[in-house]
Design brief:
Elements lengths: L2 H8 L1 H12 L1 H9 L1 H7 L6 H4 L9 H24 L5 H17 L2 H6 L3 E6 L1 E2 L17 E2 L4 H18 L20 H12 L5 E3 L6 H13 L5 E5 L2 H10 L8 E5 L12 H9 L1 H10 L4 H4 L18 E7 L4 E7 L10 E8 L3 H15 L17 E5 L2 E5 L5 E5 L4 H13 L4 H8 L7 H13 L9
Helix pairs in contact: 1-6, 2-6, 3-4, 9-10, 9-16, 13-14, 17-18, 18-19
Length: 470
């Protein structure tokens, strides 16, 4: 058992208190009037003193417990997703690292720090039966299910082998849903077992349907815990659903399950992407409410990166910087999170995409994408350009590019001021090839061709170049 799991299990009651507190404004109000009565009414087995901030300052026992959970979770995520589960192929690693660098400038520090940056997601259905009004990924209605019959199991295991061959340990960061609810597939658990047997990790689950079949949900939780799954999540869509979930499952049963408060009145701000973004275009007051809700978030109010910035800091729920597959469509995309806009309304970039028929054709497409989209250097025929949301500032020794939340990337060097500024101006022009740019820059300030290429590659590594998608 990890330190994270121990923290969850030791603080199960405080975790339940927090779920209710974040989701339910009536509970927060009742707690302020009569803490003992409110806790008893909602069946939360802790004392008023445990949830009350001491009058002399400091933090309540509940707050300290949640902080312990957050801290141990952050350490585990960093160790697994950025360490043990990092790609070994230098091209994939370079691609992932520059996308993460770009996300710091694009989506801000909170998204970049808290995001798992998984390398893999596989959908086992097409569409979703839930139909959440706020869904940032905007799936259509459930229209197809990839069942676990013998041919499909063989195909699925072959797909996993192809992915593992190319991703190596990064395949362990995969999960089996995206713009879908995993429990829409009656055979979801069987695919999880295939994943565990092939890849060596039992994938985490996020579902909005924990009450559709509580016995099935309990069995899935037991199965995942027995095989070392690091976390599962329930999406809570209403206070009525939260009441039912807390009535059905004890705090101890849900100790390793995050209950995400996605009801309208929760102290949880939604991401401005997909369906929510479309709704917000029609209802301007919706974004005003989200900005007010952000005042509850310590990561937002306590970070100067967000002070005085108009950009909304929750503009994507994307958590994959790697491959997204759909087994119903036999499709594969190379994606990474970005701020949702008219060009990419779902909050992620599609760098490349293809279809496959079997393990062999998938493996060929993966190799092609790695070769074509993950070059660790700017190639001679590329036409590099900066992201249009970056602000260019000239410096005495070079230039700086400033992102949406005050983050910046600086390119300068003593003795190369003119070369850096020339490079910046040429890339801003967005017309010349890399070969033309390095030819022009070479000779300025004594910079040679190899050094000019390295300067251009510095821009790529910093995530400031727009890697054009379809």
């Amino acid at each position: 058992m990890t330190l994270f799991h121990r923290a969850l299990e030791a603080n199960a009651v405080y975790k339940r208190f927090n779920e209710r507190w974040v989701a339910d404004p009536s509970f927060r109000e009742a707690l302020s009037r009569d803490a003992k009565g409110a806790l008893e009414r909602y069946g939360i087995a802790c004392n008023p003193e445990d949830v009350r901030t001491p009058s002399e300052g400091g933090y309540s026992a509940a707050t300290r417990a949640m902080w312990q959970i957050v801290q141990t979770k952050s350490r585990w995520v960093k160790a697994f997703y950025r360490g043990e589960g990092a790609p070994v192929d230098p091209r994939i690693r370079a691609f992932r690292e520059r996308q993460i660098a770009r996300q710091w400038l694009d989506l801000g520090p909170f998204h970049t720090r808290s995001n798992i940056h998984a390398s893999l997601s596989i959908e086992l259905t097409k569409g979703c039966s839930v139909g959440c009004w706020f869904c940032a990924l905007s799936p259509g209605r459930l229209s197809a299910v990839f069942r676990h019959d013998e041919p499909n199991q063989a195909l699925f295991r072959g797909v996993l082998r192809a992915l593992q061959d190319n991703l190596g340990p990064a395949a362990k960061t995969g999960f089996l849903y995206w713009a879908t609810d995993p429990l829409d597939n009656p055979d979801y658990e069987r695919f999880c077992l295939d994943f565990h047997e092939t890849i060596g990790v039992f994938p985490p689950t996020t579902t909005a349907l924990p009450l559709r079949d509580p016995a099935r949900t309990r069995a899935l939780l037991a199965m995942s815990e027995a095989r070392g799954c690091w976390l599962n999540r329930f999406s809570i869509l209403s206070l009525k659903q939260l009441d039912a979930v807390h009535a059905e499952f004890s705090a101890e049963e849900l100790s390793r399950v995050e209950c995400l408060p996605l009801n309208r009145d929760s102290a949880f701000a939604f991401s401005n992407a997909g369906r929510f973004r479309e709704r917000a275009k029609k209802e301007p007051g919706l974004m005003d409410k989200q900005r007010k809700t952000l005042r509850w978030a310590p990561w937002y109010t306590g970070d100067p990166s967000y002070a005085g910035v108009n950009a909304y800091p929750l503009a994507s729920i994307g958590c994959v910087t790697g491959f997204l597959l759909n087994m119903c469509d036999r499709s594969v995309q190379l994606i990474s999170p970005c701020t949702a806009d008219d060009r990419r309304p779902l909050g992620y970039i599609v760098h490349d995409e293809a279809t496959f028929a079997d393990e062999t054709t998938l493996a060929a497409e993966l190799r092609r994408m790695i070769d074509e989209a993950m070059s660790p250097v700017v190639r001679p025929d590329d036409r590099p350009r900066f992201h249009d949301w970056l602000h260019y500032e000239e410096l005495p020794d070079g230039f700086r590019l400033v992102g949406r939340f005050k983050g910046h990337a600086t390119f300068e060097g003593a003795g190369r001021a003119s070369a850096w500024r020339a490079l910046g101006d040429l890339v801003r022009g967005a017309g010349k090839t890399a070969a033309e740019i390095t030819h022009i820059v070479a000779g300025i300030d004594g910079v040679g061709p190899d050094a000019a290429q390295e300067m251009l590659d510095d821009l790529l590594r910093a995530g400031v170049l727009d890697e054009v998608d379809g």
